Amino acid sequence: MLRWTIGIALLGVIGLIAWQELRYLSARRSLAHDLQPIFHSARVFHVVTFISVAGDDGALFAALRELRRASESSGEGRVVYAGKVVVNALASKQLVARFGGEVTWSAVLLTQFDSRAAAERVLASEGYRRALALSSRSYACGMQRSAWLGLGLPVVLLGKRIAQIVSRAPSHFPFVPAEPKPELEARAAQLLAAREYGAHALVVVNLLQRGTPENAAADARYTAEMFGMMAEGAHGPLHVGEAVPLEAGDSFDRVALVYYPGVQFFADMMRSRFYRDIVGDKQLADTQASITVPVLDRL
Fold first, then answer.
1. What's the Rg (C-alpha) of the chain?
2. In 3-state terms, what secondary structure has residue 38?
3. Considering its fold, how many domains does the chain have in total?
4. Choice between 219 and 106, residue whose per-residue pLDDT is larger
């Protein structure tokens, strides 16, 4: 009898984990239009590319299409996420120094290559350089992403959600508005103007430098609070990995692309008491944070 009970319990746990993984996979594919393979070799190498393009969406999409074509033409690369930047939330001190001022990024591409050597070949190719020349500024950072970490994060969020239910923790939703601030209201307006692309999904692209142990401890508190909210809202990290700087002098440690369920959700969160009370703990040494809406399905 005990064996049957244990077996049924294990099947229940496995079923719950499978349901959680499928739920997050569905959001990744249908809402964020993210094509990241769930399983991949440890050899694969990712590149996050920020570009700045003058002109309207037509010019931006033309530049993105050319970069996608150049990245994928050899068969060694595949664009797995493309996002139009709607708010450049935090400007990296490293990138400000590199470019002599803050750059208004227009879009971000995440490309998976078969290996770092394959990435270097493609990025150095004539076709890729011609495609990149359609943008006025660009910056690329490598990322070593673990497939197992990607699979594990939804399970961590599931565990937090179960703990919330068991402990009867108060809900994060609906968000309670904080006192209005002009800067936040302006950013919220920028977000809400992007409903055409971001009604159901928004992805924040982060390049992170950890800094001191005090910085890391403060950021861990912020992350724990955000994970609690994400667990309840069924969203969260799409891609997390170790940063691999491709240019001399850069010292980012981590790359994170985090999915939220649309521009309205993010605008409400950003203006909430919840976010106001925790955002002060986000104290990393350096951060590039660009808020994007998914556009890969349009390329």
1. 20
2. coil
3. 1
4. 106
